[in-house]
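Figure 2 data, in text form.
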Amino acid sequence: MEILILMGAMVVVGIIIGFLAGLIWKGDRPIGVKGDYIVATASAVVIGLIDWFVIPAMGFSDAVKWLGILIEPALGALLALWGIRLAKK
């Protein structure tokens, strides 16, 4: 059940990051608004799932796992969107 909550939260994080990307890089949407939302959501979900499974496998505590899940998906989604914008220039 926790994994479903995690995925739902990562979808919400991705949507928020997709929206914020438009505010951060004003008017620069090389893949469009829908593309920003899709890329941000997909990258947030993938990074969240990687953190969910890999961090405990590496022997870190649950506190580190939750810290990674809270921070990394948002930063990863922003990094993915920035990379797309950089590549399209």
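Caption note: The chain is about 85% helix and 0% strand.
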